[in-house]
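Need the bound structure for nicotinamide-adenine-dinucleotide, inputs here:
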Amino acid sequence: MAEPIRIIGVVGAGVMGRGIAHLMARGGRQTFLFDMMPGMAAKAKATILAELEQRVARGKAEITELKTCGENIVVVGDLAEFAQCELVIEAIIETRDAKTDLFRNLETICSATCILATNTSSLSVTEIADALQYRERFAGLHFFNPATVMKLVEVVSGSATADATRARLDTLATDLGKTPVEVRDSPGFLVNRCARPFYGEALRMLEEGVAAAATIDACLKSMGGFPLGPFELIDLVGVDINLNATRSIWRAFGRPPRFKPSAILEQLVAEGRLGRKSGTGFFVYPRGPVEQIAINDCNPEIFQRVGAMLVNEAAFAFEEKLASAEAINTAVKLGLNFKQGPRDLARSIGIPTIIDTLKRCALTDTSGRYVISGSLADFAG
Ligand SMILES: NC(=O)c1ccc[n+]([C@@H]2O[C@H](COP(=O)([O-])OP(=O)(O)OC[C@H]3O[C@@H](n4cnc5c(N)ncnc54)[C@H](O)[C@@H]3O)[C@@H](O)[C@H]2O)c1
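Answer from helper R.:
Posting the output first, comments after.
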């Protein structure tokens, strides 16, 4: 049984840090919260409590959660107050230099047994650890937004992360009601990488004129049970954010054709059509009635191509031993709120259909985009 973690420090009180602090405090952990911007951590605590008050008033949260969070979140104005922490979670700006500077500083403040964890989405856990003195107690702890709601936590091991570090983080996440999935450090970890084909293949079909964006969305929701279509989701999160995430993974893997960012995304960003936040992206907001298409009226190619590419990418991640097939399935399902994970899709679509679909696509695109993973059958199990 891994040693429990009771005292936690959270650095960065933005969107993620605030959610993580709320989650920890709600789970009974004393949670120190620091942000380099004066007043930011206090504002984050006030926001957590104000939102909770409203939820309590509407009967959506218990008064005890409000009380516990009020008591457990301690706003600090100096990182030196993290000295007694057993775990520090970093949720600051996404640059390697800022993160390594912070962790080097934390090494001078915290005990040698305190676990240091980064919530990075796109940087290498191993590379951040390489700048540190005690690399075995360093790991990635990747939460999804909103951290209080999303069940998944990716527990990311760098090349030196100790089993005991991983085990303690797994235990903490489980205690907090989360589902931890252990993953080896690799660009985009599991979810952000395995999600790429959901957008990428939909974008490719739009480029090819297979169907309009609204039709592709409607068919995927209808045939695959996806809660949102890829274009709705890109507009919701931000076209620029999606492009940056795609670019970062494409570059990190050495620019393979299957991750190549779509020219459509580049064009939308150049035109300032960033999705909901700018009033227009793939759709114009406020949006009128959203198209719905019955399964029988859908072009089956739309679901087959997206499904085949989702399964293929997950099989590559499995082949690279990032995680077990079941862990990949769970991570993608929970991280993206999909009804079926890629292993479920592999089984429901069937490996022969997946291979046929990829081979058919490769007849017209010979760039290597549709290269087939040699582990499809093993992944499907
Ligand atoms: N937003 C998401 O959906 C999401 C999801 C998973 C992971 N992440 C990752 O979480 C991290 C934080 O993202 P966010 O969306 O919360 O960002 P954010 O911009 O909302 O918040 C970052 C906060 O960190 C503070 N900060 C910056 N540098 C600091 C430093 N050196 N010391 C202390 N505080 C500092 C800023 O003042 C700001 O309040 C990033 O690494 C991001 O990649 C984000």
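Comments: The CA atoms of residues 102 and 144 lie 22 Å apart. The chain has a mean pLDDT of 97.
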